[in-house]
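[step 3/7] fold_predict: job queued, chain A
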Amino acid sequence: MTRLHCINLALSLFGLIALWAILSALKADPDVLPSPIAVLQVTRDLAMSGELGTQITATLQRVVIAFTLAMVLGSALGIALGRMPALDRFFGPWVTVFLNLPALVIIVLCYLWIGLNEVAAIAAVTLNKLAQVTVTLRDGARAADKSIDEMAQSFRMPAMTRLRHILLPQLAPYFAIAARNGLAMIWKIVLVVEFLGRSTGVGFKIHLHFQNFQTAHVLAYALSFVALMLAIEILVIQKWERAAERWRHA
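[step 4/7] structure written:
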């Protein structure tokens, strides 16, 4: 990240916090909209007690597992559908159905069918993201340069070599898009899953403090995890995205 980018990011976040502070002062009701300082104090207390780290770790574990499963399975399905039109014609409607099923419905059904356990929670999050990854990689596989693939076949290049050196580099930008969109969606769905049926995690704590009308605690947990996801976006996803585009200029 360039210095100018860092400055713009800092100014943008400062402007958002300043707007929050102004709205909080105008509302003058800490039970409805606590000030940034009040939320910071709650966040500090939660961090010092160890509770914040424990709950963020539980949520992050679910995010990592569901994200990995969705990316691996969705990428394999997407590439297969994009490379085999007959397969896509048969399974395409299935993908559309899952793409349009509301997240809440999938979560509730997983809890009903599997039970209120960790397997159901991970399955619900993975299924909610799987179709989107599949569609993104299917579009990437369709857009791949067929002339390069035909040339590789004419030279009798092994299938795994073609996959590694020809197809996957062309799909790298689509992997990056799927990862960015997936990360943004998955952690939100994980919070809903925890809100509805888990006894640990940021979503569970938000549910608990929502019931007690503790707005500052809700914001402390939510914004702490948002900050973590923002750091991952900047330090990991954006770098991955830039690296994925390099093949175009090679």
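[step 5/7] annotate
DSSP finds eleven helices and no strands in the chain.
The domain at 58-249 is CATH 1.10.3720.10 (MetI-like fold).
exit 0
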